[in-house]
Amino acid sequence: MSWEQDPDLASRRFGGAVVWANDELFAERENLVKPEDPAFQPYTFGHKGQVYDGWETRRRRTAGVDQAIIRLGMPGVITGIVVDTAFFKGNYPPFASVEACAAVGYPAPEELTGWETVLAKSPLAGDTRNAFAVTGSRRFTHVRLTIYPDGGVARLRVHGSPVPDPTFLDFGRIDLAALANGASIADCSNRFYSSPNNLIAPGPAAVMGEGWETARRRDDGNDWVSVRLAAEGVVRLIELDTSHFKGNAPGWASVSVLGGELLSRERLQPDTRHLFLVSSDIPASAARLDVYPDGGMARLRLWGTLTDRGRRQLADRWTDTTT
């Protein structure tokens, strides 16, 4: 799976925020982490000029660069970066670089230290999703975007793999399928309308577009998604949430793991949060949700307890990405 399928760690939807920028005269820095695609309406002028859905600085008349600092909503290992200059055609920066750091606690922007380069100064094209793969295995909490010398960037996407701090996890009751806890999507049958990452995203879905929805099937098959769990554990409670899906919820669903079925095919209701107790004691590292025949699901939660092996896996991942 391409790194561009990894979740955007900086997205406002996951709690990301632009905590500082040295300039935002033409367009606000907060636009950088908006989850939706950038939009543009010509001839919409405000007091400072054309309105842009992005971050835009003034034209420099002295030497220097412009910068913005983003706190990641989900700290983790960065696998790729997209500097999207959508609709910035004559006013985009010709170059950009990205640094990252790992902070403890809740420091102010000026207190951040230990910056490491994750994307060296690279050329950008205007009105383009400029995509860059990133290699490395360190966990970061913040990134700093530098543009040379000035201009506009519509969105900054920081794709990666979340790494939770075990200090704040309850090993006795944990959502084994949560993106924020380190779970990830292994594969799925269809992602026509929206990403399966939405299924395991933090918080409830605010609208239908924040769930996972497949195309309408015209055959005898069914759609499915497989999830790598945060660590090995025993599932005790399954939550299947069809909130906001009213005329397009699946009719039925089942959940299975290697070694057995946790939930046999159960009927679902539209726009409903379904809870199912699990009696199985099968330790699992992955799970599969099957929906019949197709449709949309807002959230999948697999509440359970970590095995001893699962606890070691989380501890080892923390150590491997922070030391």
From TrEMBL:
Enzyme class: hydrolase
Catalytic activity line of the entry: allantoate + H2O = (S)-ureidoglycolate + urea
GO MF assignments: allantoicase activity
Domain named Allantoicase: residues: 15-162, 182-306
Biochemical pathway: Nitrogen metabolism; (S)-allantoin degradation; (S)-ureidoglycolate from allantoate (aminidohydrolase route): step 1/1
Keyword hit for Hydrolase: yes
Keyword annotations from UniProtKB, A to Z: Hydrolase, Purine metabolism
InterPro entries: Allantoicase, Allantoicase_dom, Galactose-bd-like_sf
EC number(s) stated in the UniProt entry for this protein: 3.5.3.4
BP-aspect Gene Ontology terms: allantoin catabolic process; purine nucleobase metabolic process
Annotated HAMAP family: Allantoicase (MF_00813)
Family: Belongs to the allantoicase family.
UniProt name for this protein: Probable allantoicase
Organism: Actinocrispum wychmicini
Lineage, opening ranks: Bacteria, Bacillati, Actinomycetota, Actinomycetes, Pseudonocardiales
Gene name for this UniProt entry: alc
